[in-house]
Amino acid sequence: MKRSFFTDEHLAFREAVRRFAETEIVPHHAEWERQGRMPREVWLKAGSMGLLCCDVPEEYGGPGGDWLHSVIVLEELWRLGLSGPGSGFLVQTDIVASYIRTWGTEAQKQQWLPRMARGEVVGAIGMSEPSGGSDLQNITTRADRSGNEYVINGQKIFITNGMVCDLLILAAKTDREGRKNGISLVLVEADRAGFVKGRALDKIGTHAQDTAELFFDNVRVPVSNLLGQEGHGFRMLMTKLAQERLAQAVRSTTVCEAALDWTVAYTRDRKAFGTTLSEFQNTQFVLAQLSAETTSLRVFTDWCIARFLEGELSPIDAAKIKLLSTELQGKVVDQCLQLFGGYGYMREYPIARAFVDSRLTRIGGGSIEIMKQIIGRSLFADPARDGATPRRQSHDGTR
Ligand SMILES: Cc1cc2nc3c(=O)[nH]c(=O)nc-3n(C[C@H](O)[C@H](O)[C@H](O)COP(=O)(O)OP(=O)(O)OC[C@H]3O[C@@H](n4cnc5c(N)ncnc54)[C@H](O)[C@@H]3O)c2cc1C
Q: Could you tell me if residue 318 is left (phi over 0), alpha (psi between -120 and 50 degrees) or otherwise beta?
């Protein structure tokens, strides 16, 4: 399918990203999976190739591209099943750099964006806490004002890039009584006294990307580390979550397409009962169904990308694409794995890794239940629907 928003320059960039992924990442990824993280070297190399913070302008030390360059990086990494950079770079580019670009002061942008684009600084975002990730309004980590400083106490969990991060965007309560209006975002450098990185969490998938617990024990940061306005954190998170969810949909859609390609290639070669698996009607029907659904997802994903580029992607549509893309991803990798038989259960096959890596997408960045809640509420909040209710007419024609 021709994707008309990509220019020739984007296509050349895609070729460069593909070469980089094949030569600099693929040969090492299994080792990083064993180590549970990626070395800093790969961040630096990716930075030098313009793969990080793609849409950060040159005046802030970025490559000066647009969001489609980020889309290309995600697609090329996930097409090869590279979960380490696939997850880590997404947080760096589409979350941390994006927040700083949108809400940072000039000094914050100058301080962090050039180093993030070069891969010298790795970013993370800390929203989720042990007591809950879905219910963000009830976080308990506090940033209490003391003179010209915030004093931070609390704990975060499940933080992508948590072990390797140099900079964290922390969601904390600056007003203990306030719910969503009491939340602020604070930039916390990882070398601040009292900022402790706990254990790297033992996950079922995405092994090359580290996920950590973080602790804050009277961590002091200057008030100039506040990102945006005090008390506006929840609103900022909700605004940017649309971009994060679309980025996740880009990932999920790409994984669906890649899994189908792997499975078509495998079943074409694999023999059983004197023929190839691809000759069985069941194989063709399963793949036909998944292919049709993936094509429909691709159309919706690209529609959302186009809306996003126009600044028109609503949080509701972002929730819809995250819901549908992550659910289909789960279905595709499961049914494709089945067609690999026992080999599908072996980690050396990309379909096996995609199967476990994919389980996360229905949970992280807002679970599918929360997506349904967002969509469901919007249906009943729309006054334009009032009066559209079909009513049963009584026998004499009155209501
Ligand atoms: C590998 C990984 C990486 C992550 N990276 C980050 C990160 O970088 N930064 C970060 O801040 N967080 C991160 N997370 C956390 C992730 O965003 C949360 O796990 C997610 O938001 C769900 O929160 P929870 O785990 O506390 O589940 P809970 O909130 O306890 O929810 C448990 C279940 O209950 C359901 N549920 C909750 N509320 C409702 C409701 N109102 N109605 C119906 N069902 C509901 C949920 O959908 C879910 O199925 C990561 C998680 C993982 C596993």
A: alpha
Kindly list the protein residues whose Cβ atom lies closer than 6 A to any atom of ligand 1.
Answer: 91, 125-128, 132-134, 158-160, 203, 206, 211, 360, 363-367, 369-370, 373
Q: How large is the C-alpha radius of gyration of the chain?
A: 23
Is the Cα dihedral 157, 161, 164, 165 positive or negative?
negative
* Nearest atom within ligand 1 for CA of residue 126: 11
Q: Say if residues 84 and 21 touch (Cβ distance below 8 Å).
A: no
| 262 contacts 337 by C-beta, under 8 angstroms | no
Report the candidate in 92, 86, 159 with the shortest Cα–Cα distance to residue 354. 86
Confidence of residue 399 (pLDDT cuts 50, 70, 90): very low
**What are the tens digits of pLDDT across the range 114-159?**
999 999 999 999 999 999 889 999 999 999 999 999 999 999 999 9
pLDDT grade, residue 389 (50/70/90)? low
Determine the number of helices (DSSP H) and then strands (DSSP E) in the chain. 12, 10
The residue annotated as part of the active site, out of 58, 244, 327, 369, is 244
- Give the position, in ligand 1's atom list, of the atom nearest the Cα of 128: 11
At 178 the pLDDT is 74
CA 132 to ligand 1: nearest atom: 26
Pocket test for ligand 1, best of 127, 134, 141 (most atoms within 8 A of CB): 134
Measured in Å, residue 279 CA sits from the centre of ligand 1 at 42
Regarding pTM above 0.85, the answer is: yes
Could you tell which of 33, 155, 158 is best to mutate to test the pocket of ligand 1, judged by most ligand atoms within 8 Å of the CB?
A: 158
Between the CA of 364 and the centroid of ligand 1 the distance, in Å, is 6
* Contact present, 301 and 253 (Cβ < 8 Å): yes
Is 327 catalytic? The answer is: no
**Number of residues assigned to the chain:** 399
Type of residue found at 319:
A
Tokens 């494709």 label which residue?
336
Nearest CA to ligand 1 atom 35: 369
Please provide the average confidence, as pLDDT, over all residues in the chain.
94
Compute how many other C-beta atoms are within 10 angstroms of the C-beta atom of residue 216: 24
What is the full DSSP assignment across 73-105? HHHHHHHTT-HHHHHHHHIIIIIIIHHHHHH--
397 backbone φψ class: left, alpha, beta (φ>0; ψ -120 to 50): left
Angstrom distance (rounded) from CA 216 to CA 370: 28
Which residue in this structure is represented by tokens 């992550």?
326
